[in-house]
């Protein structure tokens, strides 16, 4: 497997010539960026022209990861040519959250095959209900297929996200890349690092990923009391205080707010908040966030380390970036330091992370550092 990393910045252009010599049907091109959409479209067109046979995937971000750096306003690119792995790309449209489950089924039905080993999912970050999307995927794919990925971001604006579809940045789309063959190894790791605080509260009214009441009170009003002066910055400031799902309905999963509705006093999350379940507020612990990133890296090393390192795709939550601030690169460095020296790291800050949970099936996570590693035997 031959991997090249490169980036594009508005002031300097491409950091290296586009590696057209790696073009082929078994070449994967990942492009994560946050420039204006028309600029992103131009950069994607350049990649498609240089690598016309490759499978091009990517999405908008709340910050791009490339090697040990974190940036915004540019594009991070990884080009990986596999020697013994077949790739297949597919897409599904989502006009509303209620379309999410069927979109997951559509993707999975297009990819399912005996040789399928892993699926990388990249989704619109605002329209999709991530829990329903993955439920649709799991209805079709065997449990042994590793499903990872993330939801596109839009900084702390929550206004518009896009996913690469047919080579262009497109809203309301979920894309997936299937990896097939006996020699591809797909590793995964996901960890948080947040501390729970306050009392557990019962979800007394919810509908999928929309939370209306906690302990019989309007959810948004209650949440604002916790935020205090920070409530004026909603929904972005809600990233600083996510909700942990407690008990059998999702212990270990965390939910982040995507939108608030003053009229209904409700909050829309990236994934489901089950009615009847219990939740607890969380807050940041800087050192534990960085250690969580390092743990994700260690978990994502499947078996004996390869001499040439991994292609590692890091997807971390925008909330972690807002909390860590100037220390953000510490978690990226912690991930890379936990991998073999020759590994290549690319990724982005997201509105949700997709990774197998402790039970082994893929779940939607928030506020985690999630890592996918790819290598051929």
Q: Could you explain how this protein is built, in words?
A:
The protein is α+β, with helices and mostly antiparallel strands and 377 residues long. It has two domains: 2-191 and 287-376, no CATH class; 194-283, Elongation Factor Tu (Ef-tu), domain 3 (Beta Barrel). Helix content is 20%, strand content 41%. The chain has seven helices and 27 strands. The protein has helices spanning 37-50, 100-111, 130-140, 219-227, 286-299, 318-324, 328-337; strands at 2-9, 13-14, 27-33, 55-60, 64-66, 69-71, 75-81, 86-93, 116-123, 146-151, 163-165, 168-170, 173-180, 184-191, 194-207, 210-214, 217-218, 243-246, 254-255, 257-261, 266-269, 278-284, 311-317, 344-350, 352-356, 362-365, 369-376. Strands 15, 16, 17, 18, 19, 20, 21 and 22 form an eight-stranded antiparallel beta sheet that branches. β3 (27-33), α1 (37-50) and β4 form a beta-alpha-beta unit. α2 runs parallel beside α3 (130-140) and α5 (286-299) runs parallel beside α7 (328-337). The protein starts with a strand and ends with a strand. The model has no long low-confidence stretch (mean pLDDT 94).
N-to-C terminal Cα separation, in Å? 9 Å
- pLDDT averaged over residues: 94
Shape: globular
SS element count, helices: 7
Point out poorly predicted stretches.
none
Helix content: 10-25%
